[in-house]
Amino acid sequence: MRLDKFLCDMNMGTRSQVKAAIRQGLVTVGGVTAKSGEQKIDEAVDEITFRGKKLQYRKYVYYMMNKPKGVVSATVDNTADTVISLLKENCRKDIFPVGRLDKDVTGLLLLTNDGAMAHRLLAPGRHVDKVYHVTLEHPLSKSDICRLEEGVDIGDDIITLPARVTVLDRNEILLTIHEGKFHQVKRMLFAVGNGVVNLKRISFGCLQLSAELKEGEYRELTAAEIAMLSQEE
Ligand code: URA
Questions:
Q1: Does 102 qualify as catalytic in the annotation?
Q2: Exactly one of 77, 94, 102, 129 is catalytic; which is it?
């Protein structure tokens, strides 16, 4: 890879800023001051420093965010802040959210620059489990629960896949679904004559939302979590 691309990927600045830094002698490759951004490097092998600091290259990065309300799950938006705008300045620029949570929904959102992994996790045939903590407008009857668990008509060609309902309290349930249709949870509850007052995703596949993450906070996935996600059916 070209040295200037590597430095941009590592968020050391824009293409012109990193080229300027190279001209000023602020970048070394294998202990030798670099002369040009066009220089080819092997990011897996070469030791590269920027302003005296060693850069550790990782092709892919993975973050778990506790999405707050009011931000959209997109990389850019004309009207609202995005989840990407919550990332610190020093984060890489190629990160995107894996799937979407509505603007008024909180909880677990995976962010990465690993397109293949995102594609696999979101593939319709993959049926990755998602668990939502739902605060309802009113309690569910036994027959509502049966209908949700068997599959309901939410206005698409086919009914929803079987889901699982765990009643926590009069107006609170955990709903486990295996699809990710637009507004799915809200539409499922609407289909049984109920409404969603509050919605929070607490797990996505093998990932559980960390209790210590406040809304708007994020952390890198552990190596064990990344390994589990890669094996997700
Ligand atoms: N279901 C919804 O209705 N909204 C979400 O954001 C996620 C699941």
A1: yes
A2: 102
